[in-house]
């Protein structure tokens, strides 16, 4: 009798627990990996396909989907019979399939224009999901930048030689947003960590080719190795870096070589993205307006 009374006492709690577990069982979570994209099949397999496979292995409980942000790449691939969704199309497709939670992780480098567009897409469909979280790009904070500096300086250490006056130039795409300052931060951090033979420059941002050339001349550099600071070593690497920049530097009397390896090919770089996904799963992004409300109410 006593046991029955005790059981009745906890029936409301047990009922709520049952409902909670039922809702969780019905909750469908997807992982959407968002890439700029490339029309180069070889580098796509070593970068985009590689990170997709690594994420699928790291998160077997999640349904994985992918999307491309470059409309030009999407159009060109479609002409070859390869269909790729935009982020918005992929999100709407996931909702149509009954997914209620989505973790969105991009392979872009900076908190720039591509991230702004992705966050807007996610916000536009947020009402269709119980939870949608957008993970951080590769170079989101100082700790991320420091890890990338350590990885790349170690990986290309054999190409930098003070006696031979051999330098390494990491060439990023660049952006017109304030996020272009991240490239200067990397350049500064390389020197601060004792790597004066490493430089960072951009195709369409800052530091520019001209600022790079001034540094190389001041250092009396003789040999240069150009390395893409890009997730995929595609069109920009094959043409802008390996042709245009190489020829421009050779015209200045420098010996120039190229190491056309995308960042997405490097296991340690892939691991940073995987960790960003873990972070999104474990903790929702901070809502600054809610924090301000808490400050105003004296709760923080």
Record the SSE blueprint.
Blueprint lengths: L1 H25 L2 E7 L5 H6 L1 H11 L4 E6 L2 H9 L7 H10 L4 E6 L6 H12 L6 E4 L7 H14 L10 E7 L8 H12 L5 E5 L6 H10 L4 E6 L6 H16 L4 E4 L8 H16 L5 H9 L4
Parallel strand pairs: 1-2, 1-3, 3-4, 5-6, 5-7, 7-8
Query: What strand order characterises the main sheet?
Result: 2-1-3-4
Shape verdict:
globular
Identify the CATH class of the largest domain: Alpha Beta
Number of helices: 12
Strand content: 15-25%
Helix content: 40-55%
* Helix and strand pattern: HEHHEHHEHEHEHEHEHEHH
How many angstroms does the end-to-end distance come to?
48 Å
Question: How would you state the average pLDDT, rounded?
Answer: 90
**CATH 2nd-level architecture of the largest domain:** 3-Layer(aba) Sandwich
Strand segment count: 8
User: Radius of gyration over alpha carbons?
Assistant: 24 Å
The SS-based structural class is alpha/beta
CATH topology grouping of the largest domain: Rossmann fold
**Main sheet characteristics:** 4 strands, parallel
Low-pLDDT stretches? 10-25
Number of domains: 2
